[in-house]
Amino acid sequence: MSVSGPLKQASAALPHSRLHWVCANVAWAFALFARKPKFSRSPRWRASLRLATGTAVGVAIVAVTMIVVDAPAATAAQRGPVWLSEIFDHLAGRLGFLFLAIGLPGLVFTVGKRLIGRARPFVEGSANPLSYRPLGWSVEYASLPSGHAVDAFAAAMAIGLLWPRMRPLMWTYAVVIAVSRVVLTAHFPSDVMVGAVVGVVGVLLVRDWYAARGLAFVVGADGTVRPMPGPSLTRIKRVARALIAP
Hints:
mainly alpha
């Protein structure tokens, strides 16, 4: 991954002081969010008539739902079978774990690698693995660790912890992503290696936090952490047959 424009030019021509270079890169990064739009046309959904119509329809639907649906739905949910609430509770816990375990390591090290400041391959004209500009907040000096590798291996680890049968597929996916970053000269091999470790360890830390609180995982007497068993499929089928039977 590389960018062109002011940042690349600034990194090629060294400024007079280190502090000026750091401040310039930080300012450039934040200026991206404030730059003028490239297109003057507004999306169609934001047209005045569409917004007014959509708002009126939305308000009407919500009002009808409050009057007609809310009370019966809440009553039905309260009287529903226990296995149904168990399914949704189980699903919510696992989805929450996936969201946090995959997203948190990537978010932390998206910031961290810009502070580490390792140059990407050939940014300075050669494949120098020892070129660093710490605290520079520059995309071209944000090689360690590979963000793609962090995300890919975090996803492989998190999904594999919950659904072991998915492990061969997910780990193959993660390795392919890591290799691609080296082939595209976006990262050095050590970048993706560190990214893989970061992703895996990050997921394990989130899993242990969940397990200590009995969320999605449990800790066995021998210290082994394993996913909590979901609702029994046999039990669900038995209850469903009982409800359907005349």
